[in-house]
Write a structure and sequence with these properties.
Pfam families: Molybdopterin, Molydop_binding. Its cofactor is [4Fe-4S] cluster; Mo-bis(molybdopterin guanine dinucleotide). By secondary structure, the protein is an alpha/beta fold. Among the domains are: 126-198 and 421-616, Rossmann fold; 203-415, Dimethylsulfoxide Reductase, domain 2, CATH 3.40.228. It contains 31 helices and 33 strands. Helix 14 crosses helix 18 (359-371). The longest helix is centred in the N-terminal third of the chain and has 24 residues, at 33-56. Bound molecules: ligand MGD (2 copies) and molybdenum atom.
Length: 777
């Protein structure tokens, strides 16, 4: 057992044995008083009573900070005293923890020793406190001064034979101010290599929506969701990943909405919700959420939307003029005739096979859509991380377009984003394929010459490192090595780099899988106070519904050695670009208002940013389809998207595995080892399998198996990858489908297994077979 010292520089004992995992049965309802108790207990353990009170009362309040949990918007007007959820509170506790990783910690642990520890143990050690360097051939990280760190990076960058040999990753927590300056630095340096977490997340949504409606963002507000007739929630687990969405769904239901949940798993929050702030949530059973639970086969959604489209056309035939919104289609859409032809020809037997549902349910859902005057379709990773993700989202959008459900109250597309500022980072130009008009505006404002050649996204960045085309990796947050697919390939790729730099708040695996030289640069988080030359600074973020608002950290930072992300970018820019560079880097660090003024000059819809962001609830960015039914697409109209129907058949003796989040993690950060809603306690190496499949494959619940993924590469060769030792759990999932947690299963996802057009790793459909583990007695 490891030592259990706590506090400054001590190791926190986070040892555990996967064989102790207990299975207690899945829950029907999400939240309730238990959720509040869990969040308070977690807060007290990590932060102590004073910081717990200081953080949880300021979370998502008008004068507080934006929750680093997810991108679901705050409700405006009368906010509740505690506008947070269990998992938002965990995200805050994770950042505002009193535990510290000091230079002494790194002196005691070699990199080799730390790389043996699980991700859970690493994040439990606390906040990083000072810049550290790993010199070539060294066994331990050592302290380094900030100036020396910037010089080291500048030397490496300026020694490259082309700026395109450097990669600048971003995760979605970075504020608008820091993101804007970061992309400005990268473009001033001379590359568009700005891969980000979005490439693994909602890239498919952006790609599909830009084709269909001309903008890659959702077209609804919270009020629209609350006032919808019908809300479809496909491929999303809000009870765990966007818990504050549940109270909006409850409100919508009280207004008479019908909810259709489309998911291979009966996720707790989709079935029932107990609002801990209401009496029935405290003493009763809560409220039912889904009126129709469509237990779809993994990857069957495109077929579902196409089949529903056909039934909608048939209903239009029975009662002409009642289903298709002809006026909208004629005035605003292109490609309707092709869509109608293709959709009328959809074979319903194929739809039933692809989705695994019965015809009665398909017809019931069609009837729900036909009766609806206002439909919202929400989705997340269950739709975006598939080979045919872009086509699937296009098909969902078609259903809305044919009924005129875009650009009217209570209706529209709602891709529910992940990271709290992932959408804002894109708006600020963190995009490897940013359009030329953005670069033109940047060049005009700053007198620089941005490159026009598109950069690498996440998957292409890994290929570039693997193939020796990129030698320096810089990560603005995130945990690249654990978030990306094909762990072995990615690790080898990073190890080939001359320099890897991680700008981070917490210790993670990306600090331990490193280039010849490696740097850890510790930074302030969302909850920390940020003081610069002109005083206390504020930052701003954009939520999933295009609302931009301020966030004010108030906690005393974990160490005086921390720098804000803005300060790190500006100092680095000075070191890399030299003192004569035209951008006013020093002034920007001193006063973030000046950054916001620059954003106002460059980014559309951000005029008067400093004033409008200070309005009580901030301001909403323009969205032409939502605001005025204008569509800035290739045709100048909303385009019906036409793709051949695709789904995911199950090969004989194999399973289709989806990789997903437990209730006790934030992406690669593992908060704890329980998945309360799915009834798992004390471990994460579990694989959820349909009971019929368990028997048919010759196993029983509780067996320990290796997951072996199978993939045919571009040359037609069969490849295999293995993740060892998972406990089989009998679970309600469609026949042929299985589920297990990410990041443990990332080694199974081949680098080339990507979505068509968006290049997003296909994390939700991996062909696997089960093999009895060698360790299974
Ligand atoms: N507490 C917490 N909050 C988070 C995060 C976190 O890790 N922890 N992560 C944040 C981030 S970055 C993101 S992107 C979001 C992720 O939010 P989600 O997308 O909800 O996250 P996943 O766990 O990947 O869950 C995917 C859901 O899709 C379902 N699914 C899988 N395959 C299919 C399919 O083929 N069809 C359909 N219809 N459903 C399918 C799964 O059963 C599961 O319910 O959450 C954000 N919020
Ligand atoms: N198999 C599989 N793989 C997936 C997914 C999946 O569903 N299945 N989901 C994908 C998705 S949707 C996403 S978004 C990615 C997530 O990919 P990332 O965003 O790269 O990963 P995170 O785990 O969110 O990053 C956590 C780290 O961010 C740092 N951090 C936290 N807050 C801050 C901050 O304020 N500033 C800075 N500089 N650093 C900070 C901490 O050091 C922490 O260790 O993973 C993807 N990978
Ligand atoms: Mo995400």
């Amino acid at each position: 057992m490891r030592s259990a010292r706590d506090g400054n520089g001590g190791d926190v004992d986070a040892g555990y044995d996967e064989h102790d995992v207990a299975i207690t049965g899945a829950k029907q309802e999400a939240a309730g008083v238990k959720a509040v108790m869990v969040s308070l207990r977690r807060g007290l353990a990590e932060m102590g009573p004073v910081r717990t009170a200081a953080t949880l009362t300021r979370l998502n309040q008008r004068h507080g900070f934006d929750c680093p949990g997810c991108a679901w918007p705050e409700e405006h007007g009368g906010r509740k005293l505690a506008e947070f959820c269990e998992n938002g509170a965990k995200a805050v506790a994770e950042e505002a923890t009193k535990r510290r990783v000091t230079a002494d910690f790194f002196a005691r642990h070699s990199v080799a020793e730390l790389s043996e520890k699980p991700e859970y143990w690493l994040s439990q050690q606390g906040r990083l406190t000072q810049p550290m360097v790993l010199q070539p051939g060294a066994t331990h990280y050592q302290p380094i001064k900030w100036d020396a760190a910037y010089r080291l990076i500048a030397e490496h960058l300026n020694a490259l034979s082309s700026p395109d040999e450097a990669l600048f990753y971003t995760s979605g927590r970075t504020s608008n101010e820091a993101a804007f300056l970061y992309q400005l630095l990268v473009r001033s340096f001379g590359t568009n290599n700005l891969p980000d977490c979005s490439n693994m997340c909602h890239e498919s949504s952006g790609t599909a929506l830009i084709d269909s409606i001309g903008i890659g963002k959702g077209s609804v507000t919270v009020e629209d969701v609350a006032n919808a007739d019908v809300i479809v929630i496909a491929g999303q687990n809000p009870g765990t990943n966007h818990p504050r969405m549940l109270s909006v769904l409850e409100k919508a239901k009280a207004n008479g909405a019908t909810v259709v949940a489309v998911n291979p798993l009966p996720e707790a929050g989709l079935i029932r919700f107990k609002d801990p702030q209401k009496v029935h949530g405290v003493v009763g059973d809560g409220v039912p959420i889904a009126d129709e639970f469509v237990q779809i086969r993994i990857g069957g959604d495109m077929a579902l939307f196409a089949g529903l489209g056909r039934l909608l056309f048939e209903a239009e035939d029975r009662a002409p003029g009642t289903v298709v919104d002809r006026a909208f289609v004629d005035a605003h859409c292109a490609g309707f005739d092709d869509y109608e032809r293709q959709t009328r020809a959809v074979d319903l037997d194929t739809v039933l096979e692809a989705t695994g549902i019965d015809e009665g349910q398909l017809r019931r859902v069609a009837d729900i859509l036909i009766r609806s005057e206002r439909t919202v379709i929400c989705w997340a990773m269950g739709l975006t991380q598939h080979r045919h993700a872009v086509a699937t989202i296009g098909e969902a959008t078609n259903l809305l377009l044919m009924r005129g459900m875009i650009g009217k109250p209570g209706a529209g597309v709602c891709p529910v984003r992940g990271h709290s500022n992932v959408q804002g980072d894109r708006t600020m130009g963190i995009w490897e394929k940013v359009p030329d008009w953005f670069l033109d505006a940047l060049d005009t404002r700053f007198g620089i010459a941005s490159p026009r050649k598109h950069g690498y996204d996440t998957v292409d960045a890994i290929r570039a490192m693997r193939d020796g085309r990129a030698h320096v990796f810089i990560g603005m947050g995130g945990n690249f090595v654990s978030a990306t697919p094909d762990t072995e390939v990615t690790e080898a790729a990073l190890r080939k780099c001359a320099l890897t730099v991680q700008i981070s708040t917490k210790l993670n695996r990306s600090h331990l899988v490193h280039g010849r030289t490696a740097l850890i640069l510790p930074t302030l988080g969302r909850t920390d106070r940020d003081i610069q030359a002109t005083g206390k600074q504020l930052v701003s973020v954009e939520d999933s519904m295009s609302m931009v608002h301020l966030s004010r950290g108030s906690l005393h930072p974990p160490s005086d050695e921390l720098r804000s992300e803005v300060a790190i970018v500006c100092q680095l820019a000075r070191a890399v670009l030299g003192p004569d560079h035209p951008v006013e880097w020093e002034a920007f660090t001193a006063d973030y208002n000046l950054i916001r003024d620059a954003i106002a000059d460059v980014v559309p819809g951000c005029a008067d940013y400093n004033t409008r962001v200070r309005q009580p609830d901030g301001f909403q960015l323009p969205h032409p389809p939502r605001d005025s039914r204008e569509f800035h697409t290739s045709t100048g109209k909303a385009n019906f998207s036409i793709y051949p129907l695709e789904w995911v058949p199950v090969p004989e003796g194999r399973l289709i595995l989806q990789t997903m989040r437990s209730h006790d993690q934030y992406n690669t950060t593992i908060y704890g080892l329980d998945d309360r809603y799915r009834g798992v306690k004390g471990g994460r190496r579990v694989v959820f399998v349909n009971p019929g499949d368990i028997a048919a494959l010759g196993f029983t619940d509780g067996d320990r198996v290796d997951l072996v993924s199978e993939f045919t590469d571009a040359q037609g060769r069969l490849q295999e990858r293995r993740a060892a030792d998972f406990r089989v759990v009998a679970y309600s999932t469609p026949a042929g489908n299985a589920a297990a947690y990410y990041p443990e299963t990332n080694p199974l996802v081949p680098l080339d297994h990507v979505a068509a057009r968006s290049n997003t790793p296909v994390s939700k459909a991996v062909v696997v077979r089960l093999e009895r583990s060698r360790s299974d007695g």
